[in-house]
Amino acid sequence: ATTWGLFSPREIDAGTRMLVDCLDPRPDDDCLDLGCGYGPIGCVLAHLASQGRTLMVDRDFVAVDYAARNARANGLANASARLSNGLAQLEGEQFDLIASNLPAKVGRELYAILLEDAWAHLRPQGRFLAVFIRHLWPTLRREAQRVFGQAEKLREGPTYVVLGARRQDG
Which residue has the higher pLDDT, 168 or 28? Predict the structure, then answer.
């Protein structure tokens, strides 16, 4: 279920589909869908990591309502949704996998903040996966390498790229 005013209300967009195809959580992973919209990424994470928990966050209360509604409709008792401006309302929470369809027009500073916050909310060896518009690859690769020490292109299409990075401490 979705509604007008949320990202891609008619159907799941091609970038999200590409990211979903790259998701590989372990069954007991704790996952975060950052900027969840109506919850397609978070619902897939909750299904795949059925013994863990999946949190879906968005800054839009309508998106959070629809994400929670979609988790319930799909019988995903291990999924929940709540308001958060990025990761600002998740202090002290840690995850094994964070996934996001990053917005296209927010600027390098916000990407840096999101990547740094994601690193801080990942457990050691935790993974960050993000899909974004292809022309942002050089910028996001540099930022991910700065924050995580490495970044890899998991998948590339004509319009989108999926980036993967892992928190490596020490």
Answer: 28
pLDDT surpasses 70 at 49: yes
CA gap 13, 96 in Å, rounded:
25
Length of the chain: 170
Task: List helix spans (H) across 7-136.
Answer: 14-22, 40-48, 61-73, 108-120
Confidence of residue 170 (pLDDT cuts 50, 70, 90): low
Q: What's phi and psi for 77, nearest 5 deg?
A: -65, -20
Cα dihedral sign for 21, 109, 115, 56?
negative
Please give the torsion angle defined by the CA atoms of residues 156, 136, 89 and 8, in that order, rounded to the nearest 10 degrees: -60
pLDDT digits (tens, 9 = 90+) for 108-131: 899 999 999 999 999 999 999 999
HEC-encoded secondary structure of 102-157: CCCCCCHHHHHHHHHHHHHCEEEEEEEEEEEEHHHHHHHHHHHHHHHCCCEEEEEC
